[in-house]
Specification:
The chain has four helices and no strands. The protein is an all-alpha fold. The protein has one domain. Helix 2 runs antiparallel to helix 3. The chain is flat, with a radius of gyration of 18 Å.
């Protein structure tokens, strides 16, 4: 597949043509790339005093987080066991939060 994505990440978009778990790993890879771009935009925003640049770069970083949420939802659809594991992880964190809250 050509186009902008193929030029930036050669062969990346073509990997979506596979079936099953392969698509799942591609969705996870896209989420990792989204996270890296978000961090870059936030670092750029923090490195300038230009108000317009800060506003635009922060907005773009927010859009990347929206994209990550979209991919997470898709990931849950493609692999329902992923949602169960994420829920299990969330419960473990909730237990730790409850422990800390009860100590204070």
């Amino acid at each position: 597949m050509g186009g902008r994505g193929g030029e930036v990440w050669p062969g990346y978009w073509g990997s979506f043509l596979g079936e099953g778990r392969h698509r799942l790993w591609c969705a996870k890879g896209y989420m990792e790339k989204t996270d890296a771009w978000e961090k870059l935009y936030l670092q750029l925003a923090e490195s300038t005093a230009n108000g317009l640049a800060i506003e635009v770069l922060t907005d773009v970083a927010d859009e990347e987080r929206i994209h990550a949420g979209e991919c997470l939802r898709l990931l849950k659809e493609l692999a329902p066991d992923e949602e169960r594991l994420y829920t299990e992880g969330e419960k473990e964190v909730e237990e730790e939060i409850a422990k800390k809250t009860s100590k204070t």
